[in-house]
Design goal:
With 392 residues, the protein is of the alpha/beta class. It has 20 helices and seven strands. Bound molecules: tryptophan (TRP).
Length: 392
């Protein structure tokens, strides 16, 4: 049976082979597809009015909002107006540790860190090792290794230990399980089937798992009694989980979580998903400068013209160009980004030059990350979730 989510995307025919679900993503959606998903599922597009609301609450707007990377939301307006009247909220996001992390994986975390800094909010980061065990052909031993590595990658962005709480599902099983069963009682098999596209041959753990992913969305109120709203930044493939959570949480006495939703990140080769079986499908955080350069020059999908002459004459389509898109996500100076866009579009910059600019930016970013990764290695314990830590 097909997931409703997939049908809405208009991917019904390719869906059989290449499902677009929370566990498998093909990053080739157009803006129209994104709008369609948002509309169908009742998420709202972030409009100029909400953007101004964010600006006034945060003191500034992150470029990921103005450039459309985070493009939709649920009840963010409500959360912000509560915030304006003095009510706190907390943040929740996560990572499934199924392999090494690439640049695209970090984008939601970069944005989440901005939210944490601007709002001084507590942040729960769920590491779903149980999910990867149930959904992927991986052994716990490997998943554990990725868990440790991925945590270092995430923390190297500079989260603060005082209000950042990393929850590894298998390590906090006692706490999470007791909350997850409260959710699971309200999810029947037919709903899980409809929303996620499961069939009778899927293992029973998969049907249960979404209950685990719902828990951090009410864990702070559940453990502390504090009536704080929860804001979840995520890429749109995770939306089915939070649709279910929004359905169930009010039934067990909690508020629906709010969300801020991003598009998928651009793929190096322009289409297809970044996969660990093809090391050239993405730029990994441990790629050294030479490897980055090689991947960029050889594989990065270009929106430029076939020849330098044509490029000078007609200009590029930066929107579909990997180098431009990743540069746009890593360069904080929006003035610079606009200038590069302009020049590339009108043909003053050649495709190779665009790749060069992006390569330098990526290498600079990765180098800083790796330096901080080593610093943070001895401090990981300070970030681990504990009841005592969230109580204070
Ligand atoms: N299921 C997500 C993944 O596979 C991990 C995750 C758990 C998550 N909780 C989340 C992602 C909340 C975003 C927001 O990567």
């Amino acid at each position: 049976m097909q997931s409703k989510f997939i049908e809405t995307l208009g991917y019904a025919d390719v869906a059989q082979e290449k499902q677009i679900t929370p566990w498998e993503v093909q990053g080739e959606l157009t803006d129209t597809d994104y709008q369609k998903v948002a509309r169908e599922f009742g998420a709202k597009i972030i409009d100029p009015e909400l953007t101004e609301m964010i600006r006034s609450a945060a003191g500034e707007v992150h470029p990921y909002i103005t450039n459309g990377t985070f493009f939709a939301h649920r009840d963010l307006d409500m959360l912000l107006s509560d915030y304006r009247s003095g009510k706190r909220f907390y943040l929740y996001t996560g990572r499934g540790p199924s392999g090494k992390m690439h640049l695209g994986h970090l984008i939601p975390f970069i944005f989440t860190k901005w939210l944490q800094d601007r709002f001084g909010a507590d942040l729960l980061i769920q590491i779903t090792d149980d999910e990867k065990f149930l959904f992927r052909d991986l052994e716990m031993e490997d998943i554990r290794k990725y868990t440790e590595e991925n945590i270092l990658d995430i923390l190297s962005l500079g989260f603060r230990p005082e209000n950042t709480h990393i929850i590894v599902d298998s390590e906090q099983a006692g706490i999470l399980y007791n909350q997850a069963i409260r959710v699971a009682r309200h999810i029947n098999v037919s709903l899980a089937r409809d929303v996620f596209g499961f069939s009778d041959s899927d293992n029973v753990g998969k049907f249960f798992f979404t209950s685990m992913q719902a828990v951090p969305a009410f864990l702070i109120p559940a453990l502390t009694g504090r009536d704080e709203r929860c804001l979840i930044p995520y890429a749109i493939d995770q939306d089915p989980h939070f649709l279910v959570a929004r359905d169930v949480l009010p039934k067990i006495g909690y508020r629906k979580p709010s969300s801020i939703i991003s598009k998928f990140m651009p793929a190096l080769k322009g289409s297809g998903k970044m996969s660990s079986s093809d090391p050239n499908s993405g730029i990994y955080l441990d790629d050294d400068p030479k490897t980055v350069r090689k991947k960029m020059m050889k594989y990065a999908f270009s929106g430029g013209r076939a020849t330098a002459e044509e490029q000078r004459k007609f200009g590029a389509v930066p929107e579909i160009d990997f180098a431009y898109n990743i540069y746009k996500l890593l360069e904080p100076d929006q003035g610079k980004v606009r200038k590069v866009y302009e020049e590339y579009r009108r043909g003053a910059l050649l495709s190779g030059e665009m790749k060069q600019i992006a390569t330098d930016k990526i290498n600079e970013f990765l180098e800083e990350l790796r330096a901080r990764r080593e610093e943070v290695r001895s401090e990981v314990d300070a970030y681990r979730f504990s009841i005592d830590k969230v109580m204070r």
